[in-house]
Amino acid sequence: MSDGKDKLPILPSRGNQSAIEARLVSAKRGHGLLKRKADALQFRFRSIHCKIVETRYLMADIMREAAIALSRAKFETNAVFNQIVIQNIGKAQMKLRLTRENIGGVFLTEYEAVENGPDVYQIAGLSTNGHHLNMVKTEKPFKTMHNHYNCCCGVKVLRPSSYLKG
Fold first, then answer.
1. How many C-alpha atoms does 163 have within 13 Å on its Cβ side?
2. Number of domains within the chain
3. How far apart are the C-alpha atoms of 28 and 34, rounded to whole Å?
4. pLDDT tens for residues 90-110?
5. Is residue 159 part of a domain?
């Protein structure tokens, strides 16, 4: 038996009944909002986790191809490769722009890759097998690593158990 500790100390009147019903309606609405927020965060967490798995496998293949292209370029340029790269360092072709996405009051930081202009050094090293240098300069590894980093940042934000209790 309860000692009356779980009961509200109010008189049974019509006004008190309507006040209690209003509190019940607002509590149900608040519970529904929190449930939708938790579902949205769980959905986003799962989609980000799937992207991480995909980009890991893709990154392994792309990095393997990039390493082969780099070694091929070094072999073809006869160790002049480092000098060519150092001579052609200028301003960055790709930059990262910070964006924030709001999911149910939780802000996810995302980095968006932005091209900073055309490739100024497109013809660098043409006299010494420049086509191998152009193979090294592909944007695939950068964009894949960028996507993977975005996903990892999202998981770090969404991982705390306080957001994902269901």
1. 20
2. 1
3. 10
4. 777 778 888 888 887 788 888
5. no
What value does the CA radius of gyration of the chain take, rounded to a whole number of Å?
Answer: 28
- Cα(16)–Cα(20) distance, rounded to whole angstroms? 6
**71, 119, 145 from 138: Cα distances, Å:** 14, 11, 13
Max Cα separation, the chain? 95
**DSSP, res 6:** T
Q: Is residue 2 part of a domain?
A: no
Domain residues for 124? 14-154
The candidate with the shortest Cα–Cα distance to 159, out of 63, 52, 71, 81, is 52
State the Cα–Cα distance between residues 3 and 50, nearest whole angstrom: 52
Kindly state whether residue 161 falls inside one of the protein's structural domains. no
Q: pTM of the predicted model, to two decimals?
A: 0.62
* Residue at 160 is within a domain: no
- Going by C-beta distance under 8 Å and a sequence separation of 6 or more, which residues neighbour residue 7? none
| C-alpha torsion angle, residues 105, 101, 149, 45 (rounded to 10) | 50
Quote the pLDDT of residue 166. Answer: 46
